[in-house]
Task: structure prediction
Amino acid sequence: MNSDNRVIVSGCGPVGAVTTLALVRKGIPVTLIEQLPDAAEDQRAATIHTPTVAMLVELGLEKEMFSDAPSGGMQAPLFHFRDRATGELIAVFDISLLKGEVPYPYVVQWEQYKLVHAALPYIKASGLGEVRFSAKLTGLTQTEDHVEATITNGAGETEKLLGKYLIGTDGGSSAVRKLADIAFEGFTWPERFIKIGTSFDFGATGQGFCTRNYFFDPDEWLNLFKVKGYGPPGIWRGVLPVPETETDEEALSMESIQRRLQRIHQKPGDYEIPYYALYAVHQRVAETFNKGRVLLAGDCAHVNNPIGGMGMNGGIHDAVNLAEKLADVWFGRADGRALDRYTRQRRTAQVDYVQAQTIENKRKLEERDPAIRRRHLDALRRTSEDVTLHKKFLYRSSLIDSLNSANAVQ
Result:
């Protein structure tokens, strides 16, 4: 059994990697465990909103994030809203209008696995961070002054790890949250979402698409974003709903996937598709983000639909907030009540902003009533054309309001 003078972080996704990096930067020893044999190259979140860009720069990831290489991100100040039925461009929003008000007036399209791979070398080089793969959390107990984690390796051998705290960053089906017996309150959408990646360049179709596009459609709304992928020409990702009446097998058939892409832009021949995935979508928030010496962050603490790119960003905001408070407790600048404040602040961000905003985003994109739909589109256009309203929309959609409101909670 190893020394207990450390924090154990379970889950090496973007939130786990950022949490670990933030803690070692503050001088706290960390063991980061991950049940997979290596950091996953999963094609999930990619949008880094402006306040999150600032956080990652502060953590020392500026060079990697802004690299021109395929491992770096793409700056994207613009995003569009379109009516899919007519092809009409409803509204253009430009984050560069916030120049002088925020340090990075754009989002960075940077796939989450690239963020993880950028953070890991710094964690390992810190002298305070240990990263252990093929280490699955299978048991958890805690006392007044430490936690004991049982981990199982790929060969089925078990080991006990002791730590002062254990942070769960292990996703929506979190073992940490379940072992700590923390309720996960909310609901699951009846339809599933499908994400399809293609190397076809939608930007060259003459339809005027920018890097981030949202399409209103009562039958099949669409989010269409571009990322660098593994290099030119990059990857365009489409996220679309799959109705309850369509089986998983039907949705994942190549015929169905090609049909969905051809509906975005009809072209001769099939689309080249490097990846696709079908998944259930939840809106849930843990009843607490701290229970004794167990703490939750990211999808382990809250999940939401991906419309607006708020899930990973909210998780990174959790990580930075938690690292600051845990460091204050660790070095005796505050007592354990600081961790109660972490829950109050980050639950406020989730419940009042992220959950409310992502649910509203989805419902507006899929609105079926023609009159209500028209009112939504007209209101969005008016918002984009008025500079004051435009900026107000950007502050909310970029999670700046969420962050400021949460940080003000005592």
About this structure: The chain has two domains: 7-76+96-185+286-407, 189-282.
